[in-house]
Automatic annotation (TrEMBL), chains A, B:
This is Ribosomal RNA small subunit methyltransferase E. One of its GO terms (molecular function) is rRNA (uridine-N3-)-methyltransferase activity. Residues 19-64 form the Ribosomal RNA small subunit methyltransferase E PUA-like domain. One of its GO terms (cellular component) is cytoplasm. The keyword GTP-binding does not apply. Specifically methylates the N3 position of the uracil ring of uridine 1498 (m3U1498) in 16S rRNA. Acts on the fully assembled 30S ribosomal subunit.
Length: 251, 251
């Protein structure tokens, strides 16, 4: 059944939801649904309900809740991916695949080796596109929540933001090359449900030595993501898949 | 140090390697290297050596082996990804990321729900491009071996090919939705080093009921890849990351 994330304003009551805008268009034009058809509506708080269309107005739909659903497919751990700005449209891949794989939040940051430089204007322009990518990926993957995408931070601001996290990690290529590396599992074994985990990933070329020193001084631990050298846009996918495996598939 | 996979013919002796073609161009023009510069040369058998350029000819380089390297970053398990042909250029993503994440072989197959249909001519035309993608991704990720990419198989041929594998799996969306699913770890726990594992992934829309029945009859087990529904091009990345985590990072 098709899923839609409906903003809190459109939840009129416990029983009624109105859908307008892009979702209205998608349901009536793309899916060609009408009165009597069912969809799943997700509330921003994570709850979801099976709903039936009861009325089609000019520019919105009225839906009635048939049943509240209580399954959740959210990762038991709250993972934030902090991605150093990569080249081209690789950030789209990180957001889309990271959402499918369960990330709770994304922070983009301007790393010293980021080839692209985004000013506030460019970042604002991209924000709508990013929000759309994570919303669609959440619907597709049957997520209960849409991840947040925070606009571009400076490295300094990223360090400040990191203070609220329980676990602070960074992917470090030298860790993959080292014989005395820290196993990812030894880090995951220290994490318990509902903890917040921040993992920072450098852009192409990785972190600069200065950044590595600042991360370490701020209490970040370096991790290796298997022994092979991953491209920047692949690192978060390995991390999220592994943490999902550890907490959702391993017994 | 830059890495190149050099075909067996170009290993003149235990001490001498000649490099021509694209790699000659890359080393002399793109990297602007010359006599005295070092590169790592990988032999198709998985061995690798640090080499120095000793002579630059018109259309090839002569290198001398300085030291054999004995590190290996190959996955301890031999994983083949059989990917039902997806739309657009998603197959490029599967090949590139799958190589970074350690796949040993890729088989592409024409699934009943594959929207694109490739005839032999189209498949042949794409083969060069696929070989280039996996070679470059292997060099980038410091692999010891370049994965094989087998041209497009029919579903029937895929079933025949599967007979040589120790472990046969298929990703099944219904498994993710089921309350009584088989945990991926219970499958990984039965796998030991050097076993060959084949995992089949359907195209957009998944496997048809007929295909599911044929897979089961041929001894394939269905697996879930976490509780979220992944796009076809994300499934293999989850599988490879998890199996890497299980065998390379978990203790």
């Amino acid at each position: 059944m098709q899923r839609y994330f409906i903003s809190a304003d459109n939840w009129i009551s416990d029983q009624q939801i109105n859908i307008d805008g892009d979702d209205f268009h998608h349901i009536t034009r793309v899916m060609r649904m009408s009165v009597g058809d069912d969809v799943i509506c997700n509330h921003p708080n994570g709850s979801a309900a099976e709903c039936v269309i009861v009325d089609v107005k000019n520019d919105y739909l009225v839906l009635s809740v048939k049943a509240w659903l209580n399954q959740s497919v959210e990762l038991p751990v709250h993972v934030t991916i902090a991605q150093g700005l990569p080249k081209g449209d690789k950030i789209d891949l990180v957001l889309q695949k990271g959402t499918e794989l369960g990330a709770a939040r994304f922070i983009l940051f301007q790393a010293s080796r980021s080839v692209v430089k985004w000013d506030e204007k460019k970042a604002l322009k991209k924000q709508d596109r990013f929000n759309k990518i994570v919303k669609e990926a959440s619907e597709q993957s049957h997520r209960n929540k849409v991840p947040e995408v925070e606009g571009v931070s400076s490295f300094q601001l990223l360090l400040e933001k990191s203070e609220t996290y329980n676990v602070k990690l960074f992917a470090y290529e030298e860790e993959a090359k080292s014989a005395s590396f820290t196993r990812l599992s030894s880090i995951f074994n220290e994490i318990t449900a509902d903890m917040s985990v921040l993992v920072c990933i450098g852009p192409e070329g990785g972190f600069s030595p200065d950044e590595v020193n600042l991360l370490k001084a701020a209490g970040f631990s370096s991790v290796r993501l298997g022994p092979r050298i991953l491209r920047t846009e692949t690192a978060s996918l390995y991390f999220l898949s592994s943490i999902s495996y550890h907490f959702e598939e391993l017994r």
